Amino acid sequence: MKFxxxxxxxxxxxxxxxxxxxxDPAVDLTGVAAIAEATPGQISYIEGEKYAEYxxxxxASALILPTDATLQSRADQRSIPxxxxxxxxLAFAHAIALFYQPFHPAPEIxxxxxIHPSATVGQQVHIGAHVVVQPGxxxxxxxxxxxxxxxYPDAKIGDRTVLHANCVIQERSQIGTDxxxxxxxxxxxxxxxxxxxxxxxxxxxxxxxxxxxDNVEVGCNSTIDRPATGETRIGRNTKLDNLVQxxxxxxxxxxxxxxxxxxxxxxxxxxxxxxxxxxVGVSNDVTIGDGAIATAQAGLHRDVGPKEIVSGTPAVPxxxxxxxxxxxxxxxxxxxxxxQLKRQINQ
Length: 347
What we know:
By secondary structure, the chain is of the alpha/beta class. The chain is built from five helices and 37 strands. The strands form five sheets. Strands 5-8-11-14-17-22-25-28-31-34-36-37 form a twelve-stranded mixed β-sheet, covered by helices on one side. The chain has a ten-stranded parallel β-sheet with strand order 6-9-12-15-18-23-26-29-32-35, with no helix packed on it. The chain has a nine-stranded parallel β-sheet with strand order 7-10-13-16-21-24-27-30-33, with no helix packed on it. The model has no long low-confidence stretch (mean pLDDT 94).
């Protein structure tokens, strides 16, 4: 693909410089790569000054740059064709899609699949080997179900959703359109509901269900529990990384992101556009406001306000945590100082 063709296909995703002054490189573009690893024939990107040093060494044949005249001038000095984008990373994501599409098998139902007669299967569906579809299941059009998936009774799978190998969709779960459930994930498993009594724990049956709205993605080996009553709901366009635990009765808003090993107890409320970094833990009944951020390994035991950034365990405002972290390394020295002051006072 010629560079000028790529820019044309990216369309409104990027803001382009005048292409009359940007001739196509000598070789056609055949792929994409990170700036430090790119070779001739590949396009890469730079988000900002942090990676500017690679402009002097990269072997990329073309670049996506920010709207930064200095970086653009440095690319010109090396005669590397470039195109400017308000969000280079987003433009690069679109560029990847021009060269690579995930594996998607052709529509067919494998002979070893077990599909209950009462299940409804849409058009152009792929159902792989050893898939089990139980009574009352509804599968939409163009759904792709990879091998060894099990779908429990009365679950609903929306159009164009992809269920990767060995994931489990338990009873009455509702999955919207264009969702992706990765390998080993479990949607709709029983919530951790037990009533303590003098004779031990009594199981509380989890009669609720899980709802995934459209364009939700669930990472490998993640679990989303159903509640005793009502629903656990994941909002539209929200993304869960690998090994995420969403407890019973949680509600997560739209366009939020939960990184690997986030763990949420029951009935947590998460707003829209929330970011929870790796290994964040959230206690029962905590509410997290729109646009809030919890940094890695934060422990949330109280509500977090909209757009608030919190860190540490128990979580505190990020600015406080940074000050505390700076002081932490000086504690041995401060301890010795306090001991000396106590001796002086006693004397």
